[in-house]
Every structure is written in structure tokens, then in C-alpha cells.
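Second attempt. The first submission of HXXEE domain-containing protein had a stray character pasted in from the spreadsheet, which I only caught after the job came back as garbage. Lesson logged: always re-copy from the clean sequence file. Corrected sequence (190 aa) follows.
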Amino acid sequence: MVDDSMQALRDGGSRTSRLTANWVYGALPFALLLIAFSPFVDGIALPVYLSLPVYMLHQYEEHDADRFLKNINLLLGPKARGLTHASVWTINVIFVWFLLLGVFYVVRVAPGWGVVAAYLMAINALVHIAAAIRTRQGNPGLVTAIVLFLPLSAWIFAIQPASVVQYLAGAALIVALHGGIAFWATRRGA
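This time the job returned cleanly.
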């Protein structure tokens, strides 16, 4: 079986298919660039700002060579819809990058909403850990989920002046996001 992204490049593929198959290779240098700018962000917004480049580092570990896509589709089996390059791109760029960017802007005016970034990382880390325990093997993204997500989430939770409503809304949003992804991936193929 020929790797989809390499086949798309050989065939010329559409720009969209090349973008959705290779997006993660822009995440790594962009993450390093964002980290380099972090000294210019201070106070309560700093850990929320760092959540985007840290998430990008996690995405590189997770998605390089389509490791996550192949792993999840293998676990789900042939009857599930599974994930495609387009769905992985949508999840990671639209629902992660833009969500974290939005949270960073909101935190500048309403700091308590930073818990959304913490929940995004913490719940993702718990899913990686639970999957590793369940399958008794590692999975793409497990290392950065433990080493980067858990400490950064704890830092955000510790310093954000969030209300009970912000905690509950943040948790509900991220659980719904993960639930939607799981629902889409596990549906029977059309």
C-alpha cells in the first residue's frame, strides 16, 4: 500500500490534498517560532499563549508519517468510517489552532477562559494515557501529552482566575469536541 501523501505528491495531487496530507510539517517550525516570541508575552496570558506551540509540538509527534491516522484507523477496524487527511487537518488546524488562538485573545480581556486551553490539553493527555493502558502499548502523541500537556495544563489551572461557569463551560466544550471526533471516526462507513 502506497502512502497517501507520497502518492498525492507523485500524482501532482490537488493543492488541498497536499495541504491536508502535509500540514504537520509546517507545525514544527511554526511552534519553534512562536516559542521564540514567548518572552514578549507576560503575566497570566503566557501559559495560554504557550499552549498553541506546545500543541503543535504534540501534533508533530502524533502526525508525522501519518502515525495517528494509521494507528486510529487500525484500531477502529475496516467497518468504521475512520479518519482521513482532510478530517485530521480540520480537527487539528480549525478545531485546535484556531480554538487556542481564540482563547489567547479572549484571555487578554477575560482571563478565566484560559481554562479552555488547559482542558484541551489535559483531556487529550488523559485520552492518550487511557488508550495506552487499554491497548498496553504506546500511541502517537503519548510522550508529549504526558511531558508537555500535563504540566502546562496544571500551570494554567493554577493561575487562571476562572469561575465555576468557566470551568464547567470549558470542560463541556472540550468533552463535546472529543466526543464529536470520536462519533465521526467510529461511524460506519458510507
